[in-house]
Amino acid sequence: MPDEESLVRRAQQRDQQAFAQLYEEHFDKIYRYVALRIGDRAEAEDITQQVFLKALRSISSFRWKGIAFSAWLFRIAHNQMVDYLRKKTKQATVPIDEMHLSVSSDPQLLLEQRLNIEQLVSATKRLTEAQREVISLRFAGELPITQVARVMGKSEGAVKALQHSAIVALRKVLLTELG
Questions:
Q1: Domain match, 7 and 89 both
Q2: One domain, residues 85 and 13
Q3: 152 near 133, Cβ under 8 Å?
Q4: pLDDT in tens, the chain (179 residues)
Q5: Phi and psi of 141, rounded to 5°?
Q6: I need a surface site. Which of 84, 107, 147, 171 has the fewest CB within 10 A?
Q7: Number of domain units in the chain
């Protein structure tokens, strides 16, 4: 399998197979990041598709300057969500029960996962916007601290501090709700 840099270079030369491979490698992480932030499966799918359409249109502008391709995609995703949230009125739309994170056929296990996801989404709503962003990028998007810092335009230290305060706040909220 070719390395990411050569895939990006091929995609920049309009190689459809190369872009398709980049899409396959990054779609799930981008989708999880968006879904955790948005809370609506259908909207998250639409936004994720928009991210990749925008990436396809502007891939020629991507440059390897110490920034991973995935960080560039997450920045596009961040901007798409900001646009979406600006347009969206405040509504509670969390059809989390439709999000399948496991292929288990055990109904008990699936129910427990859904309940845990609903509790997590509910708890993250009590965080600051920056804390939600860090949690989404680090854990749903699976990005390392350095890439989260680039996406958010913050220092690594600021990201670490936000992550720590977010985890502490989540722990308190979840313990209060469960206990």
A1: yes
A2: yes
A3: yes
A4: 458 889 999 999 999 999 999 999 999 999 999 988 887 888 899 999 999 999 999 999 998 777 789 889 999 999 998 888 888 755 444 444 444 444 455 666 655 655 566 777 777 888 888 888 898 888 888 888 988 898 888 999 999 999 999 888 888 887 887 66
A5: -85, -15
A6: 107
A7: 2
Domain region containing 85: 1-95
∠ CA 147-152-158, nearest 5°, is 85
The answer to whether 119 and 174 have CB atoms below 8 angstroms apart is yes
